[in-house]
Amino acid sequence: MTRLRRSPWLAPLVLFAIALVVRLIAASTTSFPATEGSAYYVDVARNLVQGHGMVSDSIWSYATPPLVLPKPAFELWLPMASLASAASMAIFGTSFAAAQLGIVGLGAFIAPLAWAMGREAARAAALSRVRASAVAVGSGLVAAVLGPLVVASAVPDSTTPFLVFGVLAALLMPRALAAAGARSATRTRTRWVPGLALGLVLGLAYLSRQEAIWLGATYLAFVLAAVRALPAGRRLALASLALVPVMVGGALVVVPWLIRDAIVFGTPFPGQSIENAFLLRNEEIFAYLHRPSLAAFLAQGPGTILGHIGEAMGHDLLTVVLVPTFPVGLIGILAVLAMRRSPALRGATALSALLVSGVLTLLAADIVSRSPRCGAPSCTPRARCSWD
Questions:
Q1: pTM
Q2: Which phi and psi angles does 56 have, rounded to 5°?
Q3: Is 12 in contact with 115 (CB distance < 8 Å)?
Q4: Residue 46 neighbours by CB distance under 10 Å
Q5: Using only C-alpha atoms, what is the Rg of the chain?
Q6: What residues contact 340, with CB distance under 8 A and at least 6 apart?
C-alpha cells in the first residue's frame, strides 16, 4: 500500500493488468457469440474490417427500411461494440477470438476507473491517506473481478463500452462544473477543456447505448442546482460555461452519426426505440405485418400496465441488481443508505453522478422498457411476469 500511495500510476496500472488477465481467462471459455446481440456486433465488425461497410448479413428487425441484404446496420442499436471489436480484428484477424480482444481490453479500464472513483469519494469524505488508498484500491479490485462485469466483457456487447464511458463521464462531471464556476481570472479556453472532454465522453457513451441520455440528465440536474445557488447576475455565465462546451463536445461525436443515420435510414432518430416501449411481448420486436402500437398497449388497461411496471421493478432489483452481484450489490446498497449524509454523496460529486444516473437508468428500464416475454392468453401468470 505504501508503494501504491507513492506512485500515482502504479495502482491503476496494476489494477488494469489484473482486470485484463481476469477478462482474458473469461473470454477464453467462450468460443461463440453467446447472445443474438453479440452475434450482430461481431458480424458488423467483420464486415467493416473486410471492407464491406457497416452492414449486417441478417435482418434483425422489420421495423426500419430498407429491408435488403446486406442491411445497413444499427437502425436501433449503436456501433461502439462493433467498433471496439473491429479495432482488434483489424490487427489479429476476423475470428471471434479477435473480436473478443477489443471488448476485453476496453472492459479492463473499469478497474482503474473504479480506483479513481474510490479515491475521489475518499477525498471528499476526508479520509486519511492510508484509508483513502485502501478504499481506492479495494474499489478497483472489486471492479476487476466482479462477476457481471467480467462476464459482460467475455463477448462483444454494448454493456461494457457503456460501463466504461459512463463511469468516465461521472468522473468528469464535477470537474466540468468546477471549471465553469472558477474565478473569471482563469482563461476561458482553459475552463472549456473539462466540459469539452465531458461532452466527448458522453458522445462515446451514446454511441454505446441510448441510456447515455440519463447521464446527460444527471449533469443537467447538477448544473441547475449550481445555478440556483448563485445570485441572479451570475447564473447565465455559469450555465453557459457549464453547458456549451459539453454540447460542443457531444455534437462532435454524435452529429456525424446522426447524419449517417439520416442518409441511410431517412431519419436521424431510431424510431424503433419508441415502438419498443409499446411491446406486449418480446416477440413483437420481430413482427412483420403487425407492429407494436400505442393503441394495443393502452388496450391492456391501466391496472395491467401498472402491474407490469411494479413487477418489473421487483424483478430488476432482485434478479438484475442483487442476485448476480451478491454479496457486493447488497453491501453497496446498504452502504449508500448508511453514508447518505457523507460529503462523497452531497452535491455534484463523481459518486453521486454515478448513483443518480444509475437510478434514472433503472427506473427508465422499469417504466418504459419493461417487456413481458410471454403475453399470449395461454401463458401462465408466472410466465407473463418474466422480463428482459
A1: 0.91
A2: -115, 145
A3: yes
A4: 21
A5: 22
A6: none
